[in-house]
Amino acid sequence: MIPSRCKEDLVMFAQMESAGLEDLHFATDPNTGLRAIIAIHSTVRGPAIGGCRLIAYASDADAITDAIRLARGMSYKAALAGLPHGGAKAVIMQPAGDYDRRALMVAFGQFIDKLGGRYITAMDSGTQVQDMDAIATRTHWVSCTSRTGNPSPSTALGVFEGIGSAVRHKLGRHSLCGIRVALQGLGHVGFEVARLLHEAGAQLTVCDLDEQRCARAVQAFGARRVDPGDIYGVEADVFSPCGLGAVLNDDSIPKLRSGIIAGSANNQLAEERHGEMLHQRGILYAPDYLINAGGLVFVALNHARAPAQDISAKVHQIGAELQALFRQADALDTATSLLADQRAETIIAAGVQTAGECRESAANTQ
Ligand code: NAD
Predict the structure, then answer these.
(1) Which CATH superfamily is domain 4-71+84-135 in?
(2) pLDDT tens digits, one per residue of 336-363
(3) pTM for the whole thing?
(4) Which residues cross the membrane (predicted)?
């Protein structure tokens, strides 16, 4: 009989193998309460890059699953964005009770440094610029510090470009004026997406778990507010998920009354088969790791000290990349999510950077 603890371990290895993860690292530090995990999916194309979450997880297993699940998405995102990086994700389990946040981040910086540059961290849910500054006191392998800033506006700009591209493809409209968007989540990215859409003349219906954020959007953008549970059934041209992941599932998909899904949330599909389900229903889905790549582009190119205009140009390119994917998916009559996965896997399997990427990477790191 296998003790239950060993069974958990077996699940962990099975998860790693199924996600194609290279390695998984754990660190604890009793002095600061640090309990952290770094999941490295791939370093084939270069150092693995990806944000660090600080969340109160219900269990160790939940934290491990979150890190593994998100790391693969980061590899796909970096590959499709043509960045000379693999993907990774870090999670810090929020200590119970009072704790010294700066000391926690300094200890996490030491953990990252021990990996010798295999992993570069950045902001994610629950972490902020000040945390990255604390990490930077112990390691060079960190982005989103006070020097480089917050990636959310770049993510939002890429999502805005992606929504424009999807509307052109699906509705043949070249302007967002009058386009109806149902937007879920008004955090760092969602609120900025709402602002850009409002300035472009779109009509917004919004929801958030936080009432104050809804009230701000109603006041600033003339948005209509609905309860979080009602957002899926809103009749709109675009549904834009900018909250948490796994929102496209067996429950929500039948309720949807939008022909386009284009938002910032990571891991929007609860399972891969939900991408096919959207395709069968004739809903155009902008794959999450393609449309929300603006933040990663910002993080990676800032770390490489690329000029601001290069970063901006690459973020603006997201619309054109999506357009090409939509056309190819139509031609093959296949789900956009499947096609994007295949493309990313092909790029990662090829392993090497293209000559152009090598030149760009070398120029940026000098
Ligand atoms: P955030 O924490 O600032 O905001 C998320 C917002 O969504 C919060 O206001 C929260 O209350 C709301 N929310 C959560 N669940 C909800 C629900 N069920 N219904 C309605 N509202 C809900 O996060 P963020 O930085 O804006 O990121 C949003 C999403 O985009 C996340 O999935 C994140 O992983 C992804 N993402 C963010 C970036 C970035 O640059 N910040 C980059 C790529 C992907």
Answers:
(1) Leucine Dehydrogenase, chain A, domain 1 (3.40.50.10860)
(2) 999 999 999 999 998 855 434 443 443 4
(3) 0.91
(4) none
Instruction: Name the CA dihedral angle for 99, 109, 79, 156, rounded to a multiple of 10 degrees.
Output: 50
Per-residue pLDDT tens digits for 27-82? 999 999 999 999 999 999 999 999 999 999 999 999 999 999 899 999 999 999 99
Domains 4-71+84-135 and 152-337 share a fold: yes
The Cα–Cα gap between 204 and 211 comes to: 16
Atom of ligand 1 nearest to the CA of 292: 43
CATH superfamily of 152-337: NAD(P)-binding Rossmann-like Domain (3.40.50.720)
Residues carrying an active site annotation: 89
Mutate-to-test residue for ligand 1 from 209, 210, 211, 268, highest number of ligand atoms within 8 A of CB: 209
Tokens 């960190």 identify what position? Answer: 142
Count of Cβ atoms closer than 10 Å to residue 218 Cβ: 14
Where along the chain do its domains lie? 4-71+84-135, 152-337
Q: pLDDT (tens digit, 9 = 90+) per residue, 280-299?
A: 999 999 999 999 999 999 99
Q: Is residue 8's pLDDT more than 70? A: no
Closest atom of ligand 1 to CA, residue 210: 11
Q: Please work out whether the CB of residue 186 comes within 6 Å of at least one atom of ligand 1.
A: yes
From ligand 1's centre to the CA of 176, what distance in Å? Answer: 23
Structure tokens at 174: 């070249």
